[in-house]
Fold this sequence. Notes:
The chain is α/β, with parallel strands linked by helices. It has a domain at about 85-230 and about 285-339: Rossmann fold (3-Layer(aba) Sandwich), CATH 3.40.50.150. Helix content is about 50%, strand content about 15%. A seven-stranded mixed beta sheet has the order 3-2-1-4-5-7-6, with helices on both faces. Helix 8 links the parallel strand 4 (about 190-200) and strand 5. The longest helix has 20 residues, at about 20-40. The structure holds S-adenosylmethionine. S-adenosylmethionine binds near residues 135, 181, 182 and 200. S-adenosylmethionine binds near residues 135, 183 and 198.
Amino acid sequence: MRDNVLKKLEQFVSSVPDNEYSKTIAAISLFDFMDIMRDDDYPIDWLDRLTGSLKNIQDGLLAQEQTILFGDFEFSCNDDTSEDIAQQTGEVYFKLWRRFDSVEYFDKTTESLNRRFQLNGVDQFQNKSVLDAGCGSGRYSQALKTLGSATVTGVDISPNSVEFAERHNRYSDAVKYVTGSVLDLPFDDDSFEFGFSNGVLHHTTDTLKGLSELSRVLQKGSHCWLYLYGGVDSFFWDIVDCCRKLLTDIPEEFCISVMQVLGYTPGRIFHRNDFFYVPIHRRYREIDVLEMLNVAGFVDIKRLHRGVQYDWDEIMHQKPTLDRYWFGEGEMRFLIKNK
Ligand SMILES: C[S@@+](CC[C@H](N)C(=O)[O-])C[C@H]1O[C@@H](n2cnc3c(N)ncnc32)[C@H](O)[C@@H]1O
């Protein structure tokens, strides 16, 4: 089945007209197709629907003229070296959350984190000093404080994101932001009582090093929330890889402009470009994560299977009969304890 899908996706990519506009629309449409399927409760005939949708997108692209102007963009390959991959990653995200409004930034983030915590029985952050490792915009640092942490320190590689986080800080006496790398955390050993690393380490050059650093700066016996990409060999990632292929030479700002013209909200744009443009995005099987956690010094590893409506594990929890090919083993959210 998977080979079949991969072949269809491959054919689709090679049939898209070779211009920036077509490639961008094709990538966005493909990703939307996946979202529609999700809303549609994953019909059994999804493979046929995929074929039909790819054909519709192709026909639409061929029939359409590029009539909308998106401004002047420099279309060039990204030839940055690996040394600034982390900075590059930071900038990809900064371009996304600087468009968030306060509902997205504060209310929705707090609501979804609260739900994930409650459904999985996570309350170990209450009244604790928390490290938000790879805090980005600081939205979860704010949410962690709102939900009951004593203090939160957010650290991120991107000075722009740290500055953005500071500007949106509602708790300047209890929440602090620092620029630094999660692979070389600028804190002493045993500095924090709870760790939180949400969707960060799979974007770095060395996930295991990041886990070891977390273990170093957390007090012994303290807990940590960890989220890594999972779902190896899944339909989701096959589509994402296909979109990335289409967008290889298209600047992120151009893609954002197209989505804005199409009326996408900042949250929806974030959800797409989170996958389309970030340089490194590793995906893990549970067994690989367990192995790394063991080496890094974490014990009492609890996989968190519940979440908000759109979290893969929640979808799989509600529909246990779902074909594994959709999401593989699901997302990798864990509550872990420092040895
Ligand atoms: C997907 S975002 C997640 C941000 C935040 N945790 C959230 O869930 O909203 C990934 C973040 O990791 C940061 N990042 C990537 N590599 C990093 C590194 N080596 N050190 C610190 N932060 C890094 C990026 O700048 C970005 O803010």
